[in-house]
Amino acid sequence: MRETDVAIIGAGLAGSTAAAMLGRAGISVALIDPHPVYPPDFRCEKLDGPQIDILRRIGLADQMMPAMTYDKTVWVARLGRVIDRRPGDQYGFLYDGLVNAMRAAVPAAVDVIVAKATGVSTSADKQQVTLSNGETVRARLVVLANGLNVGLRHQLGVERIVTSACHSITLGFDLKPRHALAFDFGALTYYGETIAARMAYLTLFPIGSSMRANLMVYRTMDDPWLRDMRRAPETSLFDLMPNLRPLTGEIDVVGPIKIRPADLYVTQGHRQAGVVLVGDAFATSCPAAGTGTRKVFADVEQLCSVHIPNWLASPGMAATKITEFYDDPVKCASDQASMEQAYQLRSVSINDGLIWEAQRWARFILRAGIGAARQLRAPHRPGGHAGPTSGKLAA
Ligand SMILES: Cc1cc2nc3c(=O)[nH]c(=O)nc-3n(C[C@H](O)[C@H](O)[C@H](O)COP(=O)(O)OP(=O)(O)OC[C@H]3O[C@@H](n4cnc5c(N)ncnc54)[C@H](O)[C@@H]3O)c2cc1C
Fold first, then answer.
1. What are the pocket residues of ligand 1 if the criterion is a CB atom closer than 6 Å to any ligand atom?
2. Which string of b and e fits 339-373 if b means at least 16 CB within 10 Å?
3. 146 CA closest ligand 1 atom index
4. Which atom of ligand 1 is nearest to the CA of 17?
5. Taking the model in full, what pTM does it have?
């Protein structure tokens, strides 16, 4: 039987960040995950300025930077026209690289256990986690950071409510120019040309020496366009965005195309003694809105810098303590913004009707205005230097 104050189940982005923060604060922690090294997985592949700001605030940015590639400048374009050239604020990575860098930031004092949690029993005082290796961990608090896995939630009577099935689909692949050594841009965000394309945007950004593409579409998994994309990706991309070619030139898609749908879901029955849910284990976000990691970091920052130290300072782990986290105004605002952005981006990308058409043009004109103002402010420097802008929606 191992004893600890906090048992974290899941060493993905949320669990590893929590272990790094709590371990550094001198709190006794056990971090449980079946994978000694986080395996390759198609998830978030870039962080933007505000997400990096949180990493800086919690003192973990320096450890993460070597796993990331800075994009230097971003062209923002629609209908074949570059409407803004802004200074870069995006950092690309492969998800396993990011999580493994976060794991490396976990202090040696944290008890890292390579096993699957197979059972959890909770109470207002002591919690017990049973492991696939036959061991048991006793803790004052369990942090459930096991992502999309549902097994343990069922045991606890925590329910997942899907609010939007297959809300969006993300495609990830590498691109290279067919007739040149490099693209003209550091990174490119290209918005859908028409609602018939059923896409939000294509984002191209560097990871190491490769140009990575994330394409966000609103389709079903049996849409024949996905099959065409696998069979003839270059043709499918230019059919979807006919005015992209003048910006990229002829292109080759290199290596596999990853395709992953995302359901939006929320959680019910989670206000329980002894256990708290963070990251995707609590609620998912839409990859197109790009808010998933911001939500992970907001959850973990509030939980580990505010609530857990308070909870451990007095006996017991009653539901009244746990509820303070779910009602935390910073967490609630982050969850709400994430959900709103998911629906807003989908609607503005694919909804028909005058109101939505007007919104699309308003956004286009606003972005073009920002781009023009930037050029005026810094006429001698392409791209200007207006400082970092916020996340994907603001791109
Ligand atoms: C295709 C795609 C693209 C995305 N793009 C973006 C983006 O551009 N921007 C953005 O901000 N967000 C994006 N997201 C969302 C973001 O990736 C997630 O919100 C984030 O990775 C969630 O991290 P997590 O730690 O909650 O879960 P995970 O990283 O999935 O971690 C869960 C961990 O739990 C472990 N585990 C599971 N079961 C057990 C068990 N029984 N016992 C012990 N351990 C267990 C797993 O091994 C894993 O290590 C994207 C998501 C997807 C799917």
1. 9-15, 32-35, 38, 42-44, 46, 116-117, 145-147, 149, 152, 170, 260, 262, 279-281, 285, 287, 290-294, 296
2. bebbeebbebbbeeeeeeeeebeeeeeebbebbee
3. 34
4. 25
5. 0.93
CA dihedral 312, 29, 136, 128 (to 10 degrees): 30
Q: What is the pLDDT of residue 380?
A: 54
**Residue 236 DSSP SS3:** helix
Euclidean distance between CA atoms 311 and 302, whole angstroms: 13
Distance 377 CA to ligand 1 centre (A): 40
Q: What is the reported pLDDT for 377?
A: 86
Write down the domain spans for the chain: 2-41+96-163+264-344
Q: Could you identify the atom of ligand 1 that is nearest to the CA of residue 35? A: 47
- What is the reported pLDDT for 387? 35
What is the DSSP code (8-state) at residue 281?
G
Mean pLDDT of the chain: 94
Q: Is the pLDDT of residue 210 over 80?
A: yes
Selecting from 3.40.109.10, 3.50.50.60, 3.40.1500.10, 3.30.200.20, what CATH number does the domain 2-41+96-163+264-344 have? 3.50.50.60
